[in-house]
Amino acid sequence: MTAADHFFTARELTLGEDVAGWHRVAALAGVTEENLLLVKQVHGAAVAVASADRPRTWTRPEADVIATDDPRAAVGVRTADCVPILLAEETGRVVAAIHAGWRGLAARAPIAGVAALGQRHGVRPERLIAAIGPAIGPCCYEVGAATRDAFALAGHHSSMLERWFEPRPNGKFHLDTWRATRDQLEGAGIPSSRVHAVGLCTRTHADTFHSFRADGPAVGRMLAVIRPHAEPRTPSAERLG
Ligand SMILES: [Zn+2]
Fold first, then answer.
1. Which fold has domain 5-141+176-230?
2. How far is the CA of 8 from the centre of ligand 1 (A)?
């Protein structure tokens, strides 16, 4: 059993729209630069399905989940405090990358990722493996009551809100995006033992990771990348003979 090749970049590899780091990322993923496929992230839960067939016409659709079963392509999401999530079917045949800040979690982006792999690629959630990368943690992510209200409005059960939002003496809350992500992935059917979280807070470790809350609007971005494996080969006639 082999998961798909994947990695999370850190601060040392700053990625902007025209930074040479993209070439290194594509090389690390083992694909050409044009086959490193991203989306235009809009803090929602829409899913894009990527293929290397027409990389030159790939125009980054508005989405926060990008899935592929094309081993010539790698898919990725960019983050700086938001949660990067990578999913792989256990053989690595089908993968997805998910971007989820508080809006994406309210919109259930992790669940949308699991559902998309089921509906479009026939992958049962219990056969998925998930990796939750560096993101702002419950130690640092203070939000106002309006954020909690947005989750309630989106229909999240009060028992979940109690798990995800810790009240603070100043009337605000600390949002635990790690727990919300894990709860959604497990709620969608991925076994707990298959959800792996790095548990590193980007703001606490702002010297290592890009953090929007620490660095402000001029912050750089990190990339979470995953690439499917090719179908396992069947033994050839020569080998059998
Ligand atoms: Zn922190």
1. CNF1/YfiH-like putative cysteine hydrolases (3.60.140)
2. 18
Query: What is the C-alpha to C-alpha distance for residues 41 and 65, in angstroms, rounded to an integer?
Result: 9
pLDDT digits (tens, 9 = 90+) for 177-214: 999 999 999 999 999 999 999 999 999 999 999 999 99
User: Rounded to an integer, what distance in angstroms lies between the CA atom of residue 8 and that of residue 18?
Assistant: 19
The per-residue pLDDT for range 75-123, each reduced to its tens digit, is 999 999 999 999 999 999 999 999 999 999 999 999 999 999 999 999 9
> Edge to edge, what strands does the sheet with 173-175 contain?
142-143, 173-175, 165-167
* Distance from residue 98's CA to the centre of ligand 1 (Å): 21
- Residues around ion ligand 1, judged by CB within 5 A, are 137, 139-140, 201, 203-204
Residues composing the chain = 241
Quote the ligand 1 centre to 68 CA distance (angstroms).
Answer: 32
Interval between CA 75 and ligand 1 midpoint (Å): 27
